[in-house]
Amino acid sequence: MKLKAALFSFSVFAYTGFTAQNIQNNPGSNHGNRFEQLGTILPTPNIYRTASGAPGQGYWQNKADYDITAYLDEDKRNLKGSETITYYNNSPDDLDYIWLQLDENEQSNVKNAGFAFPSTLPASSNDQQLKATELPEKDNGYGVNLEKVTDASGNPLKYTVNKTMMRIDLPKVLKKGEKLVFKIEWNYNIPNRIKMGGRGGYENFAEDGNDLYTMTQWYPRMCVYSDFHGWQNHQFTGRGEFALVFGNFKVSMNVPADHIVGGTGECKNYEQVLTSDQMSRYRKAESAAEPVEIVTLDEAKKAEKNHSKQRKTWNFEAHDVRDFAWTSSRKFVWDGMRVTIPENNNKVMAMSFYPKESYALYRKYSTKAVAHTIKTYSEFTIPYPYPVAQSVEAANGMEYPMICFNYGRTEKDGTYSEATKNGMLGVVIHEVGHNFFPMIINSDERQWSWMDEGLNTFTEYLTEERWDNKFPSKRGPAWTITDYMKLPKDQLEPIMSNSENIVQFGPNAYSKPATGLNILRETIMGRELFDKAFKTYAKRWAFKHPEPADFFRTMEDASGEDLDWFWRGWFYGTDPVDIAIDKVTIAAPDLNTPPREAKETKYKVDKPLQNSFEDISKIRNREDKNIKFYADQDKDLQDFYYRYDRGQEKVDTEKEYTLKTDAGIPLDAKDKEKFKNLTGYQIDFVNKGGLVMPIILEFTFEDGSKLYDKSSAQIWRQNEQKVSKTYYFDKKIKSIQLDPMRETADIDTSNNVWSSSGTETPVSKFQLFKQKQGEGPVRGGASGKVNPMQAGKKS
């Protein structure tokens, strides 16, 4: 709500007053440079990435297509795979080697990235924690075992494995526009992800003796080669996630015959792997507006009791995706429904896979949450382009194209708490939302976790709000980040930090960027400008590889807002927001003092104004005969001062000139009645935290009414430590509340309130008079001085 008529907001009054005199009185007031442009902090624009934040005319990215067969050995808990990769070099560079990721080596005690982490002696420990700190006596048996690496004809290729990265040396240079076809055969022992951690592996259900497999980072996959980084071959330590290449996948998974499989993309042989009843239910689900059980709870319970020795092969295809993940278990209940994306009329199969241990929650909510998420994200970013979106209950959260693994177990009797339900919904929305960030808007997670986690968490917050206006979101609202922002500086890093360097990873990569975007949307830019710019970023970089500068530049380019101060403070800095009301000064109008009288000033002119020193440029310009001065050629410019300066005319030094100023116009009785109750309030603010933000005020008056006012963060531009603002009201203020809706992430709200005692006496009076018709208002920065040489001249 904006200020109403009760606030007398004359431009000469409600003004912060930063003239040259103010700057003189505050030497060094701008030493923080919080409003300086990012300039060379951002990479130089080029033909690949423009200054507007859009892909340039020379933008390129490489591509990788995969044809994979996989064999899941449940008895040995081993995965055996064979893949043919077709790699397209669309770069302008010749490549004599390529890099692939072997992420599963992170589970090995001898092949992992070798990143050491400090440890201290705990007060208590369990056997698994003790085992994790044991010095390895031998290979634990995990990690990728490479069997063959050959070209398309079966000839061996030379390769080197460096921990979680693999380099293949090419027999001949891969030139621009060429493609490379090669093959890899491998196997690895599937880890128990519940005990060992990690994103992929199996979970064993001891009560029924079955496993639930989440097959992720399971195949050797291409690293990204880009215009901004070259090869992204940073080691995988388990935290910084993935930088991946878009391509098409054909994947065949051979699994026990009683397993149900879900995966990235569309299954091409449901009729061969499902029973006739299951196939009939799937057809029904394809047009259903409510989730239909394709594999029922009774069927899942029955399958748990008998471990088939037969095998089935499930065939999947996916196009324009950066990765492929899948899940397999005989424990799965499977339901689905059709959801239509309005923006592109895409008819998507929303589906969920879950064991009986989460049936009561997932049957009721999961698939509906999937549908709600892709529809809401489509509204805020780009229309969901894929044919499938799936949620799998696997006791933890992780995302892949068209499929994600989520949390949400009930108690044994099927009951659950509100906290469990909300936690499950939040994780499903978050992980399904990752289809957009980074599965489509494909940022480099290994380097910039915030570009997928932060942007996704922000959009998750918008989606949770659309699910339930009272949803207890933990990340997104400004007030929820303040505990993190209060931490000592040695526990904080800028958002713009590499994933491996962050101490408080969750708040830094998820919460702080999400909160910053929400502050931009609600408080700084406004929803209309923000939403348009955010959609522009998503549209520009869909199916491409954006970097931070591309996001920052697009948000400004598409909105017309200079946000460098915000990126500098919120993303590159660690200062918190703590703006305080330091002092309130009260003044009353003097309605009886006569206004200023008319005034005449006499003065003489002896010579025109000149620079006190003849600089080198003027001297050299006069000596240069090739320079023709415009004033020498234009007769209209050759006035008295021009001729006088060149000795062509003399001045009467005895002649007096007169400078006149008008008298003020006194207030009449009507004016005095109007302004008799007027009170002036000067509010002094102090920036204690360091991070600048808009100043948002709620005024509460003695009659109980309220008014609101907001000044943009630009109010701090000329003094980043202190600023004042003056208001004039025709009724008395009872209290002033700074940031009443807690929308700026202010870490200390105790200094955000001023209350009147009701007995304050105005400390000063201000003269009030009417403005002469035709005169403009006083503007900041004007010195008020008159050039003596111009005085007395007619305009």
Automatic annotation (TrEMBL):
<dbReference type="InterPro" id="IPR050344">
    <property type="entry name" value="Peptidase_M1_aminopeptidases"/>
</dbReference>
<dbReference type="GO" id="GO:0005737">
    <property type="term" value="C:cytoplasm"/>
</dbReference>
<protein>
    <recommendedName>
        <fullName>Peptidase M1 membrane alanine aminopeptidase domain-containing protein</fullName>
    </recommendedName>
</protein>
<feature type="domain" description="Peptidase M1 membrane alanine aminopeptidase">
    <location>
        <begin position="370"/>
        <end position="570"/>
    </location>
</feature>
<dbReference type="GO" id="GO:0070006">
    <property type="term" value="F:metalloaminopeptidase activity"/>
</dbReference>
<feature type="region of interest" description="Disordered">
    <location>
        <begin position="773"/>
        <end position="795"/>
    </location>
</feature>
<keyword id="KW-0732">Signal</keyword>
<dbReference type="InterPro" id="IPR027268">
    <property type="entry name" value="Peptidase_M4/M1_CTD_sf"/>
</dbReference>
<dbReference type="GO" id="GO:0042277">
    <property type="term" value="F:peptide binding"/>
</dbReference>
<dbReference type="Pfam" id="PF01433">
    <property type="entry name" value="Peptidase_M1"/>
</dbReference>
<dbReference type="GO" id="GO:0005615">
    <property type="term" value="C:extracellular space"/>
</dbReference>
<dbReference type="GO" id="GO:0008270">
    <property type="term" value="F:zinc ion binding"/>
</dbReference>
<feature type="signal peptide">
    <location>
        <begin position="1"/>
        <end position="20"/>
    </location>
</feature>
<dbReference type="InterPro" id="IPR014782">
    <property type="entry name" value="Peptidase_M1_dom"/>
</dbReference>
<dbReference type="GO" id="GO:0016020">
    <property type="term" value="C:membrane"/>
</dbReference>
<dbReference type="GO" id="GO:0043171">
    <property type="term" value="P:peptide catabolic process"/>
</dbReference>
